[in-house]
Protein: CpaF family protein
Organism: Dyella acidiphila
Amino acid sequence: MENALNRADPFPDVLRRIDAVTTPRRDVPFEQSQQFHDVLSGAHEFLLNRVEEQHLDITGWALDTITKYAEIETATFVQEWHIPINEAEMHKVSLALVKELTGFGPLDDLLHDPEVEDILINGYKDVYVSRCGVLEHSTARFTDNRHLLRIVRRFLVPIGRRLDESNPMVDARLPDGGRLNAIIEPLSVSGPCVSIRKFRKEPFTPDDLLARKMFDKPVHALLRAAVMGRCNVLISGGTSCGKTSLLNALASFIPHTERVITVEDTAELSLNHPHVVRLESRLGGFEGDGTVGIRDLVRNSLRMRPDRIVVGEVRGSEVLEMLQAMNTGHDGSMSTIHANSPRDALYRLEMLCGFAGFQGTENSLRRQIASAIDFIVQIARLNNGRRVISSITEVIGTSDDVVTTQELYRYEAAVDLDGVEHERWPGLGFHPHTPKLEPYRQFLREAGGGLA
């Protein structure tokens, strides 16, 4: 090994780290050790040099051909530089090398795992994943921060986005529909921090969510009647509680004869509907020119002959256009909002309208909100990671300058004498006031729940 280090080579630092670990640690598997990542880094540099020397274009090669080539070059690298690993460990290096060449390196397996919802990276050694709403530490890691940045930029290159010192923060929609947020030094003190939100290729249907016990049959019936009856629905909840999944599912109740326009900051919705027009906001150039915000898109969508407008998330000045659309013939529109309760959702709407420059009185604003929103569906994420509808609240009107509401359903969980937990969504005995549900009274009676 010393003779090898004395030779002129393109990666002496990697080889010195490998040489320093002549006896691999046995308290962790080889593929999780620093030795593995150092060998992989050296093999990667070695292979790229070989590709350049041989003037090869491996981008058009089949996966089997790349795999065989990686095995041969890994063996050559290990033999030429006297790397102290056995044949099984060398095979693991070559497999990881294929993922470096054809995919996203250490993230490849996580990206293909259907159970993984979020990938959270806090520096090159610290990777967490969310499965079924529960965070857990992953064994995946990177060699160093440079390795991590190389993989992140591989996500960004196809969509024309940059991540460097002049642009140290990026939020982007990935080609597969996922979302990536990355922030690097000097804004991130602990190294590059990356958040990847994955989305299902096939969105959940209402029946899927019913099977997962997000709600029960009476709640399912009310949601179906509300969408088919063209009620305006606001889905409220915290981060990663299932708002987008529920919005996707509710869209399947929209009649196929209607035209739906979705407006989002970053396109995440995947509505199961044949006639959907998807609009996405655009960031401006270096000097801010060319910016197209959600408010502009909502305003423009009114000129596109929509039957329903779906705003992915209300978070700014677009709230005024959305409320006006709901009040001017676009019944059946839906949106989501970050709030901890239905009442907080109403307060947040008022606050956003104030920030957007609403010129009327508080009373007139509350009347407009009350006439626009029919139902607020509150979602919560339980301690075990499950998402459930915690309540369904109807907005009735205004009284004494306050938006009046009534709760129709509420999630309850109780443990019986045998220690078994039971969940239910009892109806609270109030009948929906909106005349939009009148054609569905019999349907709601048959579903149960005591609301019809």
User: Anything to note?
Assistant: Residues 2-102 form one domain. Residues 1-8 have pLDDT under 50 and may be disordered.
